[in-house]
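B., you asked whether I could sanity-check this one before it goes into the benchmark set. Here's the sequence:
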Amino acid sequence: MRFITKLSVVVTALFVASAAFASGPKMGNLENGKNIFKNGKGDVPACVSCHGDDAMGSDAMGTPRLAGQGYPFLVKQLEDFATDKRMDTTMFIMNVNAKGLSAEDRRDVSTYANSLSKDNTAPSDMKEVKDLGNAVGIRYLGKAIVTFGDVDRGIPSCYSCHGFNGRGAAPVYPMIGGQKYVYLVSQLKKWRDGSRANDPMAQMQAVAKNLTDEDIQNVATFLTSAPRTTMGNARVPPQYPH
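And here's what the prediction gave me:
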């Protein structure tokens, strides 16, 4: 009964958070966001210099794909960088960059990145990943964890929060399918060791603590090229279903 009560509290909290995010924050100015993304602003460099012109990220630099991520999620990450709730321990620049933009600028950039392709058009090149010196996993083993989790080890499926093959569940959970391999591995390890802790109710930290290095590599290997749809069904649910 205690478990059911706690679960009810978590579900209620997530529902309230989702409702709040769905009604806000207000979308920003697309053109201003595009200009900042392409050209930077003041001392803040252009986002394209690390995330690419298509915002698909870079395995060589360890930067994430931003294209098509949910607007509320992108705004939250920039706000967390600006307030040091999340620390950039990869490129060591996001905290400074986020602080260099106004709250309105951060909403504008998030609006533009969200508007870019949601399709899995640029999965990681696993040969390049290996050539960069990274260990890679076994795809089908990663698919098993993503789809079913591992109950015996306390690992829920990625599907349960991030949707089918990690295609995202706005407004809270980002798209991890089609994300860059190096970034996925890096962030899962940061969740595991606690160096990243800006997740809702510490959910990712609770999951990652039960993942081995091999699990992380397997999951990332599958997710980076995970299809958004199933065979015979090309429909992807709307980002904000009514």
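One thing to flag: The radius of gyration is 18 Å. Otherwise nothing jumped out at me.
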